[in-house]
Amino acid sequence: MASTAGPAAVRERVRTFALGLPGAVEEFPWGESVIKVNRKVFVFLGVEDGSQPGITVKLRDPEAHAHALTSPGAEPAGYGLGKAGWVRIPLAERAAPAAELLCDWTEESYRVIAPKKLIAELDGV
C-alpha cells in the first residue's frame, strides 16, 4: 500500500518507531541519521535535509526482502551491504511503501541485529 504522507513525515514516523524499540539510540555518523542497538546499525535514515529521502534496512526473511525490492526505486544497499540483505527504499517515489510497512521492515531489521534479551523485552517475555 502506498503512503499518502510526504517523505519527511514517513521518515519521522519510522524514526520515532525505531527509537521506541528496546535499547535503540540515534547517532549521526557520516552526516546521516542511523538508529543502533547494541552499537550496531539496524536502520539508516539518510541525511536530515531530506535531499535523498529513503531508509535502509536489513531483511533476512526472503519474502520481506523480495517484497522490499519491488518498491519503486528500491535497490540492494551500496558499499557491499546489499549482499548481506540490506535494502534501500526511497521515500520520494510515487507509490513508496506506507509508514506502517516501513515500520514492520524496521522491526525485522532490529530483530536481525538486536541481542536476544532485547528481542525478548520487545516480545514481552
The geometry reads as globular
Structural class: alpha+beta
Helix content: 25-40%
**Oligomerization category of the chains in this entry:** single chain
Spatial order of the strands forming the largest sheet: 1-2-3-4-6-5
**Which radius of gyration do the C-alpha atoms yield?**
13 Å
Largest sheet: 6 strands, antiparallel
Distance between the termini: 31 Å
H and E string: HEEEEHEEHH
What's the overall average pLDDT, rounded? 91
Q: Please report the number of helical segments.
A: 4
Extended strand count: 6
Low-pLDDT ranges: none
> How large is the share of residues in beta strands?
15-25%
Q: What's the helix and strand layout?
A:
Elements: H1 7-19, E1 24-27, E2 33-37, E3 40-46, E4 54-58, H2 62-69, E5 75-76, E6 86-90, H3 99-113, H4 116-122
Antiparallel strand pairs: 1-2, 2-3, 3-4, 4-6, 5-6
Helix pairs in contact: 1-3
Structure description:
It is built from four helices and six strands. With 125 residues, the chain is of the alpha+beta class. It has a six-stranded antiparallel sheet with strand order 1-2-3-4-6-5, with helices on one face. Strand 2 (33-37) and strand 3 (40-46) form a beta hairpin. Helix 1 runs parallel beside helix 3 (99-113). It is globular, with a radius of gyration of 13 Å. The mean pLDDT is 91.
